[in-house]
């Protein structure tokens, strides 16, 4: 499993569920992305930071016996820090882009109702 996938699984599931719930209740994709990002920003950031700082003593250990364990802590520690902006920014942006592209393709295909006038 790549390092960023661990953090995404550990910290990011809640915002995606909130976004899906907002979309099912009838909100458009942009407002659902903003609502999910605002509602889950603090829990996601706190979970990511506490996970990283929990692994920080092992990452920054300087003893010879810890050299075998440092890579074990580096992967999830920096993976969580790397995946947090992806969870908060890129994933909701991709939802909005996907929704807009769907509207464009439906318009091109003639499936959107057109205004008479």
Structure description:
It is a single chain. By secondary structure, the chain is mainly alpha-helical. The protein has four helices and no strands. The protein has helices spanning 3-11, 13-24, 29-59, 70-109. Helix 3 runs antiparallel to helix 4 (70-109). It starts with a helix and ends in an 8-residue tail after the last helix. The relative contact order is 0.18. The mean pLDDT is 78.
List the helices and strands and how they pair.
Layout (H helix, E strand, L loop, with lengths): L2 H9 L1 H12 L4 H31 L10 H40 L8
Q: How would you describe this structure in keywords?
A:
117 residues, single chain, elongated, mainly alpha
Could you give a short description of this structure?
With 117 residues, this protein is mainly α.
CA(first)-CA(last) distance: 55 Å
The coarse overall form would be elongated
Strand content: under 5%
Query: How many structural units, i.e. domains?
Result: 1
Percentage of residues assigned to helices:
over 70%
* Average pLDDT taken over every residue: 78
Rg from C-alpha positions? 20 Å
Low-confidence spans? none
Q: How would a textbook summarize the main sheet?
A: none
Our count of helices gives: 4
In N-to-C order, the SSE pattern is HHHH
How many runs of DSSP E, i.e. beta strands? Answer: 0
- The secondary structure category is mainly alpha
